[in-house]
Amino acid sequence: xxxxxxxxxxxxxxxxPYQNFDVPIKAQYLYKLPTSxxxxxxEESLKKRRSWGENLTFYTGTGYLGGSLAGAAAGFxxxxxxxxxxDTAKLKINRILNSSGHTGRSLGCKVGxxxxxxxxxxxxxxxxxxxxxxxxxxxxxIGTGAVFRAARGVxxxxxxxxxxxxxxxxxxxxxxxxxxxxYI
Length: 184
What we know:
By secondary structure, the protein is mostly helical. Among the domains are: 1-36, no CATH class; 133-184. The protein contains five helices and two strands; from the N terminus they run ββααααα. α3 (89-129) packs across α4 and α4 (134-148) packs antiparallel against α5. The chain is flat and about 80 Å long. The relative contact order is 0.08. InterPro entries: Tim23-like.
């Protein structure tokens, strides 16, 4: 008995919990399940973006993971270059592991902090302007670069801010190109 019990309402579907058993279909066994995400407040459903906490977790975590992997790869090359004549296999492996761990950990922490600063500034700009577009992301990139290098002086902060804005713009442009030409 394969009948399709779909609802006339597009936002819900009918569910029969005993459909695999030989139980007659009655109205009390059918449930209307939503097909779209449910929100507690209507304001949440109007926003098409992650919350500030989700942004913080996402940017910090991906920054730390990406930085750690890149640092581990650079540390691996550094460990291989530090081989000396007469090193045993255990000593070579130890050099590689120590170098990969140290470089990966330090670069991961730096990039994770950059992600955390970016998430905070982006969430602040979106909350202040009540817009979420490419310009808010570029402003967050400029602010992130400036804040990250602020301890080295005004000139270093300005240069890092410009580089941060350019990097954010390049990432946004690359994302648009991928969306347009690569069907992912």
